[in-house]
Amino acid sequence: MSRSISFMLARAFCVAGILLLLQSCSGKSASNNEARTEKPLPVATPQPSPTASATPVPKLPPPTQAEVEAALHRVFGDDLVAQPNDGNGHAAFIVGDFNGDESEDLALIARPAAGKLDDINSELANWILQDADKAFVVPQGKTAVVPPKQERPRVERGEQVLAIIHGFGPTGWRNPDARQAFIVKHGAATFVGIARSISQKSIRTMHLPYETDIIKEVRNNKKGFVFWTGGVYAWHPSEG
Q: How many Cβ atoms from other residues are within 10 Å of residue 202's Cβ?
């Protein structure tokens, strides 16, 4: 009998020990799980930032003759020579946003330098050579038009041309990266000033994709203006 009681007590102690061991392991496992569980990072409440106000493009200072000649040399090298005036005592350069990209452009009257005609007329030149009297404008109401084939114009010796340098960024044509340029035959004339393209009824009826500045001129005693068609520059007589 005493042997049986001793066996039962031993068995009870074994069961109790096993339960205590399981409880201890369970507690450690839970503790380890809690340790391994990633706690969410606190999310900061975003604070409202002040509304950015539109900053107008700063007006650039008037160009000097030295700046004009430096820009001409930067883009055209020594192939063109800037005219000091238009022959009537007026400045031979003018600035404005001629292609509608909100960057100031430069237009000036120039002539070919001696011995540079081949360079100026080369198809490999870094500028576009075009004729303002032969610029093609898509007719009103047409969506797909094949432009007429035209011969490449050629600048002649001593001929005055309109050289245009498109601006780049806030500093416009003064920017060293401003390199897009045009040599425009039949574009050199007495500058009268600039105006917005929508001021001309003829341009409004063309429904051009850009609103630009136009160059008002007097050419052969006739008032007119040079304007951007979206790809080239064209001459148009003034209305009235």
A: 14
Closest by CA position to 228, among listed 103, 92, 97: 97
Please state the rounded mean pLDDT for residues 26-54. Answer: 43
- Supply the DSSP symbol for 119: H
Model confidence over 162-209: pLDDT tens digits?
A: 999 999 999 999 999 999 999 999 999 999 999 999 999 999 998 888
Burial bucket for residue 50 (CB in 10 Å: 0-12, 13-18, 19+)? exposed
Residues facing residue 131 across a β-bridge: 185
| CA 79 – CA 72 distance, rounded (Å) | 9
Provide the pairing of β-strand 105-112 with 161-165: antiparallel
pLDDT at 150: 73
Instruction: Tell me, yes or no, whether 77 lies in a domain.
Output: yes
- Domain around 73: 65-189
How does pLDDT run across 209-226, given as a tens digit for each residue? 889 999 999 999 999 999
- Using a 10 angstrom Cβ sphere, with 0-12 exposed, 13-18 middle and 19 or more buried, the burial of residue 235 is buried
Q: Are strands 181-185 and 128-131 parallel, antiparallel or unpaired?
A: parallel
The count of structural domains within the chain is 1
Q: Smallest Cα–Cα separation from 71: which of 106, 111, 109, 120?
A: 106
pLDDT of residue 127: 97
Q: How far is CA 113 from CA 22, 108, 123, 156, 182, in A?
A: 101, 15, 18, 11, 16
